[in-house]
């Protein structure tokens, strides 16, 4: 029983950075911009959060620093792709490479230092309920922020006018421009939001998941987040599901190897999360036509206003 | 309307001038629109109509001149400002979002409105009052072009506009839909709303409009009452010269067919596309065969099937001079003498960023022998491009200019000319005069007829019924991927074609329906 609870708790913890980063990227892509720099933005967020926390002693300040770091670097991307119309794919890849190097430079004096971790929720009585308590009520605040952001983004996209406008910009920037919506400004806001969310994901990594700083500590999670958005066909709740499946498989891999002690090559276990996530998301989006139709039609296309 | 002279004009433009690099789009244009008036804005492509309209709608700022709205001088800084004043516009190319619903699309065009039930109710109300049937919950990609246009009109009407600008609204409608649209526009005019109606279809303007302003080369050349003019007098004012007489449709050819299509069925690869079903057609040397139909009924798919961009798994579905070619791709078909002019000029017919010389090479390298051991014969290629430019009166800075630098009409003349000069055995042209001014359209039609006169089989796929009636020997209609039996143009009426376009097929058409239309 304890093992199961442990697996669920760690699954939720491991999924949170993916949920945060993928939800941010979902909004960016819904506005028609493809930012492949999630990995880089996460690293910048992680290092900013960790350094500020260590220097000030405040985890809250650290979280905000992570978000600001993500926003600043995402705005570099926004200026290059939306103002100077640089290629989005190339710029996004460059952003990741830049993020890896820049975060290593910022964090060079902090490698190996330890942080106690963000405080966990602790409601006397409720947090101590067996099974439910640890699973639901004993996490760090960012875990709840992640789930809340999925709900908030869903509500924003499908229930508000501003969300409709954002989807419309991603669907056809020319039509949106013709009606009079500020396409570039809306995309700037979306990219900055994506930067903040990636920064938050990084902050969760360096302050809660593994409270320390290490070069390239995001270990490909930015790329997983990008893939989640596509396989989730740009829908917020599916991103949440995909992230949990990935996290669960990751934990099964760790616990399973020791618990089952089967004679299976460890590489197969390492592959499991990736395979399982792809299988689950492919099953829920098996209608290929649907996927193509739900992709924002202007994704990755540069916008030149004509008048 | 007798009191019109004493009332304040709704919109008054004076001395509007707009200069673009290298051209004067509007040269001190004056225009007065009275409340409740249906006012035609007439002119060739490049005459400055769209620039003028964009100025009124706030998309473009004039370099000089004054705009008065109900007598007050104003500046219209943006489309939002225009809409706040009470100016609505229905674009020729709809600014709609394919993946969103009708309701979403309407909400997007209305500042401060959300896609909620109240709005859906208003849409239904307006669509009832003005005869514009529309379901708010449908996704746009499932709608016909006529229905899409209704979204735009409803969106404008929800803002209670005093001036409605319609940019070539009938170019994509069936004759029946045109009738419905005109009824709606007359209702609006009777309510006191003014309509600025842009078109190059002269007959429509005579049927609908009370006043016409005619533009040529950016200047106003005439103001008139189109009901008192004839189509040819309007055309003369617009063109500043006589229209050459149209080619006369001849008797159907009886020569053995050069291209035979039997049982051609193809599923569309595009989710929003149309499947072709059991297409059968004989195309004979020396004839022009017209394929009519409302846009989005399989024209694109038919062109791709004939050009070889989509291949059939049955080689004998298409026979070229008896040889099965259904499985062959575009290069193999071109090598046999089957040339194609696709509808989309930039990106399909021509590479936008490449020069005219390079674009000439792209389809002409075989028939015009422009290659030598794999090397381009640059001199020959250049002369070929120059001959297209000279023979088809393509207005360009030179054959080194990029295809994208040409105006739509001039590029169309170039791509049609490029294929015609190769003297193909079969030429398939889709929308050869789409968006082309009347003078150039006439030249293209004459060139196509002349090509048929030299023994080429010509297929013209077009939504312009007048054009097909003018140049085709036989005419067939495509509707939801099915092609009707071609009939000699001389023995078919526009009404019959209209019914076929609307989905009433010859075989299943109730006889009384056909009679009622006649």
Report on the structure:
The complex is a heterodimer of chains A (307) and B (518). Chain A is mainly α and 307 residues long. Chain A has one domain. Helices cover 73% and strands 0% of the residues of chain A. Chain A has 13 helices and no strands. Chain A has helices at 2-30, 38-56, 59-83, 88-106, 132-137, 141-159, 161-171, 173-179, 183-209, 221-231, 236-260, 266-284, 288-294. The longest helix of chain A is centred in the first third of the chain and has 29 residues, at 2-30. The mean pLDDT of chain A is 89. With 518 residues, chain B is an alpha/beta fold. Chain B folds into two domains: 2-239, 3-Layer(aba) Sandwich (Rossmann fold), CATH 3.40.50; 259-517, P-loop containing nucleotide triphosphate hydrolases (Rossmann fold). Chain B is globular and about 70 Å long. Chain B is 33% helix and 23% strand. The interface between A and B is medium-sized, with 21 and 25 residues.
SSE topology:
The complex is a heterodimer of chains A (307) and B (518).
Chain A: H1 2-30, H2 38-56, H3 59-83, H4 88-106, H5 132-137, H6 141-159, H7 161-171, H8 173-179, H9 183-209, H10 221-231, H11 236-260, H12 266-284, H13 288-294
Chain B: E1 11-20, E2 23-33, E3 38-43, H1 49-56, E4 64-69, E5 72-74, H2 79-85, E6 87-90, H3 102-108, H4 117-129, H5 145-157, E7 163-167, H6 175-190, E8 194-199, H7 202-208, E9 211-216, E10 219-224, H8 231-239, E11 259-266, E12 276-283, E13 288-292, H9 299-307, E14 318-320, E15 323-324, H10 330-336, E16 338-341, H11 356-364, E17 371-372, E18 375-376, H12 378-391, H13 408-420, E19 426-430, H14 438-453, E20 457-461, H15 465-471, E21 474-479, E22 482-483, E23 487-488, H16 494-501, H17 511-517
Parallel strand pairs in B: 3-8, 3-9, 6-7, 7-8, 13-20, 13-21, 16-19, 19-20
Antiparallel strand pairs in B: 1-2, 1-4, 4-5, 9-10, 11-12, 11-14, 14-15, 17-18, 21-22, 21-23
Helix pairs in contact in B: 3-5, 11-12, 11-13, 12-13, 13-14
């Amino acid at each position: 029983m304890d093992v199961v609870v442990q697996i669920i708790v760690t699954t939720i913890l491991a999924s949170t950075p993916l949920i945060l980063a993928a939800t941010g990227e979902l909004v960016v892509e819904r506005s028609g911009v493809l930012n492949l720099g999630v990995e880089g933005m996460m690293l910048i967020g992680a290092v900013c959060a960790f350094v500020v926390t260590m220097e000030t002693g405040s985890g809250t300040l650290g979280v905000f620093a992570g978000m600001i770091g993500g926003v600043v670097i995402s705005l570099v991307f926004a200026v290059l792709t939306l103002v100077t119309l640089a290629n989005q794919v190339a710029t996004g890849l460059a952003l990741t490479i830049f993020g890896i190097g820049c975060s290593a430079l910022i964090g060079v004096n902090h490698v190996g230092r330890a942080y106690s971790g963000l405080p966990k929720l602790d409601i006397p009585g409720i947090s101590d309920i067996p099974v439910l308590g640890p699973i639901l009520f004993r996490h760090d605040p960012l875990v709840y922020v992640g789930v809340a952001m999925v709900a908030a983004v869903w509500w924003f996209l499908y229930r508000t006018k501003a969300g409709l406008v954002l989807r419309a910009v991603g669907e056809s920037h020319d039509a949106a421009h013709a009606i009079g919506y500020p396409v570039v400004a809306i995309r700037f806001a979306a990219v900055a939001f994506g930067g903040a969310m990636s920064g938050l994901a990084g902050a969760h990594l360096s302050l809660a998941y593994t409270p320390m700083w290490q070069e390239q500590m995001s270990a490909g999670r930015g790329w997983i987040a990008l893939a989640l958005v596509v396989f989730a066909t740009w829908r917020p709740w599916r991103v949440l599901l995909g992230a949990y499946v990935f996290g669960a498989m990751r934990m099964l891999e760790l616990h399973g190897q020791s618990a089952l002690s089967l004679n299976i090559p460890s590489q197969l276990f390492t592959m499991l999360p990736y395979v399982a996530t792809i299988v689950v998301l492919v099953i829920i989006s098996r209608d290929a036509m649907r996927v193509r139709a739900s992709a924002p039609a202007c994704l990755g296309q540069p916008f030149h206003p004509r008048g | 309307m007798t009191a019109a002279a004493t009332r304040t004009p709704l919109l008054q433009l004076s001395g509007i001038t707009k200069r673009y690099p290298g051209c004067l789009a509007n040269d001190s244009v004056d225009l007065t629109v009275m409340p409740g008036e249906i006012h035609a804005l007439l002119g060739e492509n490049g005459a400055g109509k769209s620039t003028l309209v964009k100025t009124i709608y706030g998309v473009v700022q004039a370099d000089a001149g004054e705009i008065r709205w109900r007598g007050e001088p104003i500046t219209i800084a943006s489309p939002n400002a225009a809409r706040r004043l009470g100016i609505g516009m229905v674009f020729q190319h709809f600014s709609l979002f394919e993946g969103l619903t009708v309701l979403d699309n309407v909400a997007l065009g209305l500042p401060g409105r959300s896609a909620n039930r109240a709005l859906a109710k208003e849409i239904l109300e307006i669509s009832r009052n003005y005869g514009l049937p529309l379901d708010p919950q449908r996704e746009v990609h499932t709608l016909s072009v006529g229905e899409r246009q209704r979204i735009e009109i409803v969106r404008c009407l929800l803002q209670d506009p005093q001036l409605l600008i319609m940019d070539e609204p009938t170019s994509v409608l069936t004759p029946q839909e045109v009738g419905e649209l005109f009824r709606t526009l007359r209702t609006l005019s009777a309510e006191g709303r003014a309509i600025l109606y842009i078109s190059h279809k002269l007959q429509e303007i005579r049927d609908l409009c009370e006043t016409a302003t005619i533009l040529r080369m950016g200047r106003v050349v005439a103001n008139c009452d189109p009901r008192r003019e004839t189509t040819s007098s309007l055309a003369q004012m617009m063109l500043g010269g006589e229209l050459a007489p149209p080619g006369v449709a001849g008797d159907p050819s009886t020569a053995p067919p050069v291209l035979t299509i039997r049982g051609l069925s193809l599923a569309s690869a595009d989710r929003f596309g149309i499947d072709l079903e059991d297409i059968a057609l004989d195309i004979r040397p020396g004839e022009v065969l017209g394929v009519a139909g409302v846009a989005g009924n399989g024209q694109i798919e038919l062109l791709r099937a004939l050009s070889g961009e989509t291949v059939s798994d049955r080689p004998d579905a298409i026979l070229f001079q008896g040889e099965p070619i259904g499985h062959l791709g575009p290069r193999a078909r071109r090598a046999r003498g089957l040339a194609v002019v696709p509808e989309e000029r930039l990106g399909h017919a021509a590479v936008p960023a490449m020069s005219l010389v390079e674009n000439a090479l792209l389809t002409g390298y075989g028939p015009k022998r422009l290659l030598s051991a794999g090397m381009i014969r640059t001199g020959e290629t250049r002369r070929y491009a120059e001959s297209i430019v000279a023979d088809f009166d393509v207005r360009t800075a030179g054959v080194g200019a990029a295809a994208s630098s040409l105006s739509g009409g001039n590029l169309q003349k170039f791509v049609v000319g490029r294929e015609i000069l190769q003297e193909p055995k079969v030429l398939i042209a889709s929308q050869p005069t789409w968006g082309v001014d009347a003078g150039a359209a006439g030249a293209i039609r004459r060139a196509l007829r002349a090509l048929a006169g030299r023994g080429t089989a010509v297929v013209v796929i077009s939504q312009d019924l007048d054009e097909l009636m003018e140049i085709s020997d036989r005419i067939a209609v495509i509707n939801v991927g099915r092609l009707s039996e071609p009939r000699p143009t001389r023995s078919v009426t526009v009404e019959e074609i209209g019914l076929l376009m609307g989905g009433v097929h010859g075989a299943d058409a109730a006889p009384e329906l056909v009679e009622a239309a006649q």
